[in-house]
From TrEMBL:
A Pfam family per the record: Glyoxalase
Chain residue ranges for the region called Disordered: 1-33
Name used for this protein in its record: 2,3-dihydroxybiphenyl-1,2-dioxygenase or glyoxalase/bleomycin resistance protein
Biased composition (Basic and acidic residues): 1-31
Residues of the VOC domain: 187-313
Keywords: Metal-binding
Organism domain of life: Bacteria
């Protein structure tokens, strides 16, 4: 790790001002582990339970997934890129998020991880077969690390539109008529989780899975207490990786916030959004462009109230880009677009949210009145 210095008007910080106005101050979290057990290569898929697989499949196709496999008890969804499925939905009594599965770079990583954690390497119940190690993160989420046998083949793509820019005329004697159809999902990009034990969970993902932080966010007036949100990417060395594969933030609850799926371009996001709107689905927030990660985004709710994001044109960082630091605020979530909605921010009152707050303030975790007030202030700022 290179030495970090207090940011000044003519001083280049360790992250070289690439993605945040601020770098780390001396003594702050370095955003990576000195000696991780393994380094995962990507997010493989997400696991859910839902009572109605037929309804889940209808939304999945409308949102832009393809069906990789379907049985009476399981629905495996995929994108157009070759690789693993994006999501598995298993039949259950209630709708709930189970946890993420990460992809090991090599089969030997599973053995190394199993030895270090006292776990077993078992068969992975994924189309095409494979092996997996099951873990539990400090928040209580089941986390699987998998190495799959067969890769799903690529499917036909939704081609990006050819655009004219100023005097650069690439399209002549031809019109633009993007069809109003489902956005064609290419791949799973990231998942965002809420946790009451942010610091412990952060260190677990860095130490166990070898992930590294792209950006930290802190509460106004509470930077000395450490960050409350982290955008975390896979460490692929000199190969650029998504700005974040996992994002976590401190909160009164423990659970899924949203997951994001890459599509071709802005027209795919917009036309696919019109398609979803015509079919009565609820847009949570969008369309806009994020600050951390720079993605073009559009957020939707599925029939079970889970939030899913279409995104395109995200940042890619190699391992030598160090964490940026920025205050957490609602207005700081986007470079342009409509204001973040209460639905997206989870700011709407509900009996479950009240129970979460009461349990968090009574429990042994990182939530306290000052943190809670800081989070409420950030949601309104």
């Amino acid at each position: 790790m290179s030495e970090t210095r207090v940011h000044g008007p003519d001083v280049k910080t360790a992250h070289q001002d690439l993605h945040s106005e601020q770098g780390a101050l001396r003594g702050e979290h370095p955003g990576r582990s000195r000696n991780p057990v393994i380094k995962v290569a990507d997010l493989a898929w997400l696991e859910f339970e839902k009572p109605d697989l037929d309804r889940a499949e209808i939304f999945a196709r409308d949102f832009g997934f393809q069906v990789a496999a379907r049985t009476e008890s399981e629905l495996w969804l995929r994108g157009t890129f070759a690789g693993t499925p994006c999501m598995v939905i298993r039949r259950g009594r209630t709708s709930r998020f189970i946890g993420p599965a990460f992809r090991a770079a090599e089969r030997a990583d599973l053995d190394r991880l199993a030895r270090a954690t006292g776990s077993d390497v078992r068969d992975a119940d994924v189309p095409g077969g494979g092996k997996a190690v099951g873990l539990l993160d400090p928040s209580g989420f089941p986390v699987r690390v998998v190495h799959c046998g067969e890769q799903l083949p690529a499917l036909p793509e939704q081609r990006p539109l050819l655009l004219n820019f100023g005097t650069d005329h690439r399209r002549t004697n031809a019109t633009q008529r993007p069809p109003r159809e489902p956005s064609r999902i290419q791949r799973l990009g990231h998942v965002v989780l809420e946790t009451r034990v942010f610091s412990r969970a952060l260190d677990w993902y860095l130490d166990t899975l070898g992930m590294i932080v792209s950006d930290f966010q802190f509460l106004d007036g509470q930077r000395e207490r450490g960050p409350v949100m982290a955008f975390i990417r896979c460490d692929l060395g000199s190969v650029p990786a998504d700005h974040h594969t996992l994002a976590m933030h401190l909160g009164p609850g423990t659970g899924y916030v949203h997951s994001a799926y890459q599509v071709t371009d802005l027209d795919s996001i917009a036309a696919g959004g019109e398609y979803l709107k015509e079919r009565g689905y609820q847009r949570s927030w969008g369309i806009g462009r994020h600050v951390q990660g720079s993605q073009l985004f559009d957020y939707w709710r599925d029939p079970d109230r889970f939030m899913l994001e279409h995104f395109a044109d995200g940042d890619l960082f190699s391992c030598d880009v160090e964490p940026g630091w920025a205050p957490l605020s609602a207005t700081g979530l986007a470079q342009w677009g409509p204001p973040a909605t209460r639905d997206f921010l989870g700011a709407g009152p509900s009996p479950q949210r009240v129970r979460d707050v009461v349990q968090a303030l009574r429990g042994d975790n990182e939530m306290d009145p000052a943190r809670l007030l800081g989070l409420l202030k950030a949601a309104k700022s």
